[in-house]
Amino acid sequence: MTAPGSYGVAALPRLRVGAAQAGVALAAAFFALVCLAALAPGLFAHGPDQVNPALALRGPMAGHPLGTDQLGRDVLARLVFGARPSLLVGVGSTLLAGLAGSAWGLLAALGGRLVGEAAMRLADVLLSFPAILMALLVVAVLGPGTRNAVLAITVALAPGFARVVRAQALVVRGSAYVRAAVNLGLTPARILLRHIAPNVVAPLLILATINVGTALIAGASLSFLGLGPQPPAPEWGAMLAQARDYLDASWTLALFPGAAITLTVMSATVVGRALQARYEGREAG
């Protein structure tokens, strides 16, 4: 005989999994929307630099759903058009870090003991610095701007990719099918391209998805400090920096760019963790 309430208890795991899957789908949809805004901002808003001093520091109202900033510019329009430079720094630096880290990790795994030890000790030194501190050091040398911010965050993230790629490449290199390929006389380049590189792609993509959030935070932090994209270009971190001087007059001026950064980072991280769980054979959530 089934105990009272046992059906409800048995259904809890399914409800939890269903809720987790719904959360992942919602996060993926939001991140896709942000990417669409970055690619085609004109679909959602117009005139991010249109100044109207008579409407400065107004709250949400007709014609300006998220209010206006200190120059009377529409906050919604600046948020939408700010998605491109924000994602350019976050996604661009992650892609570059993935490429550089892959080459670095493969060199460490396949370049011999001396090369591998030297490459990994360099990675350990760079990883001993927090990502934002490393990015600040690089920008301090190169100067402010979008390109330098991307390069700075790339330098900060590449060692993490190198470690993952090296570990995965070492596992694949010791597998039976790679040893068989060596015995059959395949060239090292062919073994690398046909057997090793394809097997490091999946963990690399998962790490890249997760690191997009880290890169977005680092990019917004650099912009907040005036070291990222320069005004008057709309960028979420720069919008936060400008809003801090007007919090008494319009607190929503800081709310919306802060929410955009937070939700975008959360959505990228949730999608990345879900991909990681699926790769490892676990249920997301």
Polypeptide structure, described:
Keywords: Cell membrane, Membrane, Transmembrane, Transmembrane helix, Transport. It is found in: Cell membrane. This protein has 285 residues and is mainly alpha-helical. The chain has one domain (64-284): MetI-like (MetI-like fold). The chain is 72% helix and 0% strand. The protein is built from nine helices and no strands. It has helices spanning 6-39, 75-110, 113-127, 131-142, 146-173, 176-183, 188-224, 236-243, 252-279. It is elongated. The model has no long low-confidence stretch (mean pLDDT 88).
Helix/strand layout:
Blueprint: H1 6-39, H2 75-110, H3 113-127, H4 131-142, H5 146-173, H6 176-183, H7 188-224, H8 236-243, H9 252-279
Helix pairs in contact: 1-2, 1-9, 2-3, 2-5, 2-7, 3-5, 4-5, 4-7, 5-7, 6-7, 7-8, 7-9, 8-9
Keywords:
285 residues, mainly alpha, MetI-like fold, 0% strand, elongated, transmembrane, membrane, BP-dependent_transpt_permease
CATH architecture: Orthogonal Bundle
- What is the gyration radius calculated from CA atoms? 23 Å
Low-confidence stretches: none
Number of strands: 0
Per CATH, the superfamily is MetI-like
The shape is: elongated
What profile does the largest beta sheet have?
A: none
Oligomeric state, counting identical vs distinct chains:
single chain
The helix/strand class is: mainly alpha
InterPro entries: BP-dependent_transpt_permease, MetI-like, MetI-like_sf
Subcellular location: Cell membrane
Keywords: Cell membrane, Membrane, Transmembrane, Transmembrane helix, Transport
Membrane topology: Multi-pass membrane protein
